[in-house]
Amino acid sequence: MLGSDEARAIHEQFPAIDLHADTLMWTRWLGYDLHARHTPPLPFAALGGHVDLPRMRDGGMGAQFFGLVSLPITHSARGSAAVVDAQIDALDEAILRRPGLRLVRTAAEVEACRAAGELGALLGIEGAHALEGSLDKLGHFARRGVRYLGILHFSANEAGAPAYGRGRDDAAGLTRWGHDLVHRCEAERVLVDLSHLNKRGFLDACAIATKPPIVSHTGVLGAFDHWRNIDDEQLRAVAGLGGCVGVIFCPRFVGGEGLGPVVKHMKHILDVVGEDVPALGSDWDGFIVPTRPLKDPTGLPLLTDALLEAGVSERVIGKILRGNVMRVLGEA
Questions:
Q1: Which of 54, 67, 63, 83 is nearest to 17 (CA)?
Q2: Residues in contact with 311: Cβ distance below 8 Å, sequence separation at least 6, in sequence order
Q3: pTM
Q4: For residues 307 and 263, what is the distance between their CA atoms, to the nearest angstrom?
Q5: Which residue range forms the structural domain that includes residue 222?
Q6: CATH, residue 198
Q7: How many CB atoms lie within 10 A of CB 63?
Q8: pLDDT one-digit tens code per residue, 55-77
């Protein structure tokens, strides 16, 4: 097992919760077994095959948010909702097949899962195009266990424009439907995820939100200049609402290989908006090449060691690993 005894003790006290992994996409496509330990061969290992229950346990995890991905091939999002339902079906089947994994929705359920010795699975949709223009579909997905909705992914939809991708428009804010969507999310107790949303839409969403939003997987511009990353104004907008920001593990977005760049992004968030904001946002299994020490959950104690070496206290590390996400879940 990786990491120092001190790091592993911290994970025992604060089992980690990661805000974004796209593993169910692979389960739906390839029958990827969440219960089996995987050592995928290259080049597959560079893009997927990162998360499974044995490696989550080895890495001191308590729960994983699984992103529900649908990628519209044309300008029409028709069929996207069915793709999301199929991924939830795949998780349901994995839970029924063997013990050890439980679908959870609330902070209390995450704690109950921990007490039972099981790992928690939470759900988040990546891109409101999956609603196919219907706010009522959000209620359907909420009833199936979805706990956050990413307003945008890589293509414009009824709510607004992406930070990058098809339909990018940096001057576009949230549409009227996008405003209604934020309000509907809060009514359905679904967290608003601002990942992939352009800056103007991002700030629009924060201006009308009354509950904490999240940014499930991102870097920060104050640590590395990249279109994928958010700036200090966006950080302050999320922090002002009590939200949290998951730091991505992709070297292309954090500015280099190794643990140092990931820690740099977390330290920047701590410096700008404080200890209640940073969280984990790996983007495992999401067609990214993760940094080698964090190629799968087994490396998380190494990140904890790196944070300790950077002068971050055990108490604050506990917030990064678990506490900040749990607080946001509780407040939602």
A1: 63
A2: none
A3: 0.96
A4: 6
A5: 5-331
A6: 3.20.20.140
A7: 27
A8: 999 999 999 999 999 976 545 56
